[in-house]
Amino acid sequence: MAFDDLITRINLFFNEAENEAEDAHQVLEQLHAELAQLKATGQPLPEDLVKLEALLDEEFRSRAGEKQGR
Prior knowledge:
mainly alpha
């Protein structure tokens, strides 16, 4: 049941952040927190969410690098 709650919360985050870059960063932070909570309770981490987290991390690092290069 916890996994279903996680998916619901993540869907809500994405719906809220759909068109806002700043909100997308908030989605990443929330995803970090949700995965950390699963890990802390010994639950397995959903592979697709771990991959999503890595993709978002990479995207934000890339954008940060572009801003610094300007």
